[in-house]
Amino acid sequence: MTANMIVVTYGGIFRALVCCGGFLFAFPLLYTFTLATKLSLRTSRMQTFRSSFPTVSRDLLNWFPGHMGKGMKQMQQKLKLVDCVIEVHDARIPLTGRNREFHYTISGIKPHILVLNKKDLIERRMEGPIRDRLRQQDGEAMHILFTNCKNQSCSGLRKLMPLAKQLICGSDRFNRATQQDFCIMIIGVPNVGKSSLINVLRNRHLNKKGASQVGAIAGVTRSVLNRIKICEDPPIYLLDTPGILEPNIVDTETGLRLALVSSLQDHLVGEELIADYLLYSLNKQGNFSYVEQLGLCEPTDSIAETLVACALHHGQRIRSRQLDGQEVLRPDILMAAKHMIKSFRIGAFGKVSLDYDKIDSL
């Protein structure tokens, strides 16, 4: 793909005007990836990619709305009604972003199962090393299951309730020792599949439709619900809870990994920033599948190049009128960033573990 380009200025702001395919595009030089008269996406596959990601303001990554604090208090109040705690987390970030407060306030004295959901988005060979690393990092994470809530025949889903029953029967139930029913609390950070897990278990054991609201945006579940029955013999009830993050994200990469798997709301962090971290992560793992998916010619370390190429490749353009009255088309960078993030989340770039560095350090 080639195009003629000139650099102009409006109000002291430099912009590039590019004529390509009969259209005139205008965009800031921040997103201009060549200053020659030919527009090219060619970069060297041997180029040096970033070895670290720039530090980002904590204000962009810390998200702890009022319903999270309220939810934590409600969960603590209902602990006396609970026999077991199932913590759900995203299998792509098994070692990142788990709320450490859960251990001290919710799950410390109850039988605990860690469910790593969305296992279909990571390589199966990673499951063993992840288990080993988790047990090394958290000595109490002894019961770990990998699940895929989109697959009713998932082995992890089949094992979950029998394991929960075994742990409950083998524990001291204290004030609930005489109760015939079992009550299990489902906890975790936002958007890891807690409500989906409840719904699939309810469908699997009772053949009934889901009773818990599910959404692709973090923060759909905002209150601790009434008990949801998922099994008859013995009677088993699940408590759905809001996704709760730690009030303070420990570092930039933790926050951006949470954002990439949608545990933080995209618009709060910034889609372009999330897409840039995704590009950095893919390059660091040598995963260049994005090149073909986004319409690039070669791998690149520049998010500006990537998003402009993606916008042009997918026809994502914005028409606007300049000060001189001329109508121009420019790449829709925001839409391109959203497209790139969505592609990762649905597995278009292959099976990607974001915690590869922590797992490899075992």
Can you characterise this structure?
It is elongated and about 80 Å long. The strands form 3 sheets. Strands 6-5-4-7-9-8 form a 6-stranded mixed sheet, sandwiched between helices. α7 packs across α9 (271-284) and α11 packs across α12 (333-345). It contains 13 helices and 11 strands. The chain starts with a strand and ends with a helix. It has 362 residues and is of the alpha/beta class. The model is unreliable at 7-15 and 27-46 (pLDDT under 50).
The structure class reads alpha/beta
Question: How much β-strand is present in the residues?
Answer: 15-25%
Number of H/I helices: 13
Amino-to-carboxy terminus distance: 45 Å
Secondary-structure element order, N to C: EEEHHEHEHEHEHEEHHHHHEEHH
Trace the largest sheet across and list its strands: 6-5-4-7-9-8
Summed over residues and divided by their number, the pLDDT gives a mean of 84
Q: State the shape.
A: elongated
What percent of the residues sit in helical stretches (DSSP H or I)?
25-40%
- Taking all Cα atoms into account, the compactness measure Rg is 24 Å
Q: How is the main sheet built?
A: 6 strands, mixed
Low-confidence stretches: 7-15, 27-46
Give the quaternary arrangement of the chains: single chain
Number of strands: 11
